[in-house]
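Hi, here's the filled form for the chain we discussed.

Project: internal
Contact: R.S.
Residues: 143
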Amino acid sequence: MKDSKTSRTDEAMLRPRDAAVQLQISYPTVKQWIYHRKLRAVKTPGGHYRIPQSEVDRLLHRTRGHNEDERRVSYKRISGRNQLVGRIVDIRVSGLVAQVTLSVGGQLITSLITSGAVREMQLKKGQTAAALIKATEVMIIRV
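And the returned structure, exactly as it came back:
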């Protein structure tokens, strides 16, 4: 391992506390997941754990609650049922319109929203967000 932020493949490596924040779970839960091998982690020469960003992304959609109703309620109460939680991988703003792309379980979902909405929600690349799919529209929810 080169340092505490990158691995041999230059993948971002997270401290357990940072992974807990992204997954919206407690630090002790992250530690238990590491111990029980539910969450893959690398031990540094100093004995600290580092978690690959890809592991957090893999688990991201599973950590919003224990069942579908709990997952839906944990970040926003809304009537829409098709909410997909992922990571913002690209934001392109052009005039009044913005294109926001989320990675959800390795799949990309792109939504066109107003540039004002991007500013209001303070959306940034790398943040966790949810796509709300309703009929033919995809809306972005900052979580």
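Let me know if anything looks off before we file it.
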